[in-house]
């Protein structure tokens, strides 16, 4: 079954407290933490726009006003830069406010990812849509979301992104049982378990933070009771859709082997900053040179 409705809307849940990055996130949303010289959330919006989704809804909570400010015009700053003739920085400042049509809705009660997605129902209405989690940054050279949208158009239903992880890491993810599908690099999802113990995992295929969902997910979420952690789990609702032919199902998984930067963990966040800085044309050459010298100087000290 193919989907004829266009996909134009992206939903970005951004209501989390960011407790793993305290005290930095006491007054600053975790989505605004810089990755080189842009906040993490801007990379996610840019990914949605590059995939052809010009309409972005952010599901926010308390103390998230800096997100709105970042994607709004900053007239005083723009005027100061214009008066200085600093066209390059003026372009960068304006860029974020011109990326997309960005809307906001408050989640209110922190009832989990499934509840955050459900908050998007009035805005999304009856169209399929994408969900992008801000902790996963996908390298623009690996257009995962574009591929997922293509799969949804061909096969209908809903689509998740899957990566293979070591057995000792499956407890950190939603985990999928899979069966073959008719497209290369795509599998059919037959079951989903949220953060299982290694011995209970149906496979080592883990769901990462990209989804293309049929709007039938909203009705399923409304009937989904709280699951792991007392929260409404998107994984549980997708498990229901995975059992269907039509009416929001089935669920397929795109096997992703590209470049992914995890900014939800402090150590992985630092690795992401280093990797992206190394690949920048303006920063990379000098930064890589310094990094080589630093490693050569520091590693022997640790091994003595």
TrEMBL record:
Q: What class of enzyme is it?
A: transferase
Q: Which residues form a coiled coil?
A: none
Any one GO molecular function term: UTP:glucose-1-phosphate uridylyltransferase activity
Reaction catalysed by this chain? alpha-D-glucose 1-phosphate + UTP + H(+) = UDP-alpha-D-glucose + diphosphate
Q: Where is the Nucleotidyl transferase domain?
A: 9-273
Biological process terms from the Gene Ontology for this record are: UDP-alpha-D-glucose metabolic process
InterPro entries for the chain: GalU_uridylyltTrfase_bac/arc, NTP_transferase_dom, Nucleotide-diphossugar_trans
Give UniProt keywords alphabetically: Nucleotidyltransferase, Transferase
Q: Which Pfam families match?
A: NTP_transferase (PF00483)
E.C. numbers: 2.7.7.9
**What family, per the record?**
Belongs to the UDPGP type 2 family.
Which protein are we looking at? UTP--glucose-1-phosphate uridylyltransferase
* Protein's organism: Allostreptomyces psammosilenae
């Amino acid at each position: 079954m193919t989907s004829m409705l266009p996909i134009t809307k992206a939903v970005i849940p951004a209501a989390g407290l960011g407790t793993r990055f305290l005290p930095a996130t006491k007054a600053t949303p975790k989505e605004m933490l810089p990755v080189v010289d842009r906040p993490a959330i801007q990379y996610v919006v840019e990914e949605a726009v590059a995939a052809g989704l010009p309409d972005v809804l952010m599901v926010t909570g308390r103390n998230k006003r800096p997100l709105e400010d970042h994607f709004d015009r900053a007239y005083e700053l723009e005027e100061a830069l214009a008066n200085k003739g600093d066209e390059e920085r003026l372009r960068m400042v304006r860029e974020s406010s011109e990326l997309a049509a960005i809307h906001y809705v408050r989640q209110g009660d922190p009832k989990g990812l499934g509840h955050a997605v459900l908050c998007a129902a009035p805005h999304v209405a009856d169209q399929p849509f994408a969900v992008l989690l801000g902790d996963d940054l996908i390298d623009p050279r690996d257009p995962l979301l574009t591929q997922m949208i293509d799969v949804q158009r061909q096969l209908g239903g809903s689509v998740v992104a899957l990566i293979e992880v070591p057995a000792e890491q499956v407890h950190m993810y939603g985990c999928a049982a899979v069966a073959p599908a008719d497209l290369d690099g795509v599998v059919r999802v037959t079951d989903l378990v949220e953060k299982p113990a290694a011995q209970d995992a149906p496979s080592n295929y883990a769901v990462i933070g990209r989804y293309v969902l049929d709007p039938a997910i909203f009705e399923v979420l409304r009937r989904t009771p709280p699951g792991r952690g007392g929260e409404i789990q998107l994984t549980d609702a997708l498990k229901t859709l995975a059992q269907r032919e039509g009416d929001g199902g089935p669920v397929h998984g795109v096997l992703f082997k590209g470049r992914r930067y995890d900014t939800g963990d402090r150590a992985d966040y630092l690795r992401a900053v280093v990797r992206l800085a190394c690949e920048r044309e303006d920063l990379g050459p000098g930064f890589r040179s310094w990094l080589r010298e630093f490693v050569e100087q520091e590693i022997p000290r640790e091994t003595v």
